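> forwarded from #structure-qc
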């Protein structure tokens, strides 16, 4: 454990982890306060959602720290596929704004702030995780492969948001119900005109994620340039 934190500090990642820990604690505290105040568990599901958003970040962090120990670069694709299954859970929290409405006993602005905190935290975890993955594949292969992986993952992330929000599929369904999941995906790929919602949601959210990520990458280049 000590070596793990030493490695984090060496790679200037310790403070990022601390900040994400604080923002996650803040999110959970907001829900706990609401439950205590109202005696209702209205938004407790957000705690589970933010945990799922942390999973891809934890995977990508381990990859950044220890990918050099994987001698054969081809083996990187196994943890990457696991990461990709969980990645859409991070930006997915944006769609939890669907649950926002006026509820008795709690100011509307409090619920708005609560969901926005979770959505923002999930989105930042997703982008940070994506930057990790791009850095690993750029280091082990070439920059264009890193960008290809990033763009493809963000596009699939938009589709994953649709699968989770409208078809209610989860990351672990890849293992528990693979045939049913593949059937739903294939149906929408083979019959695009029968599923306009699929393509509308996927295109809009993919565009949002892609533009947001590219902008964040440009920020990192501009403000770290000496």
């Amino acid at each position: 454990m000590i070596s793990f934190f030493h490695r984090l500090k060496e790679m200037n990642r310790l403070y990022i982890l601390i900040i994400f820990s604080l923002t996650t604690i803040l999110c959970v505290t907001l829900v706990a306060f609401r439950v205590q105040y109202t005696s209702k568990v209205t938004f407790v599901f957000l705690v589970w959602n933010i945990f799922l958003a942390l999973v891809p970040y934890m995977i990508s962090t381990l990859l950044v720290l220890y990918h050099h120990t994987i001698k054969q670069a081809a083996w990187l694709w196994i943890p990457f596929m696991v990461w990709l299954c969980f990645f859409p859970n991070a930006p997915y929290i944006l769609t939890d704004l669907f649950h926002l409405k006026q509820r008795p006993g709690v100011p509307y602005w409090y619920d708005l702030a609560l969901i926005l905190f979770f959505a923002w935290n999930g989105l930042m975890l997703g982008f940070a995780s994506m930057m990790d993955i791009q850095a690993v594949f750029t280091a082990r292969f070439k920059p264009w492969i890193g960008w290809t992986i990033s763009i493809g993952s963000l596009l699939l992330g938009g589709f994953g948001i649709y699968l989770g929000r409208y078809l209610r599929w989860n990351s672990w369904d890849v293992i528990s119900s693979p045939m049913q999941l593949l059937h739903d995906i294939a149906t929408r790929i083979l019959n695009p005109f029968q599923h306009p919602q699929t393509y509308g949601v996927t295109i809009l959210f993919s565009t949002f994620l892609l533009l947001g990520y590219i902008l964040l990458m440009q920020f990192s280049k501009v403000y770290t340039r000496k």
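QC bot note: The two ends are 34 Å apart (CA to CA). The CA atoms of residues 70 and 107 lie 51 Å apart.
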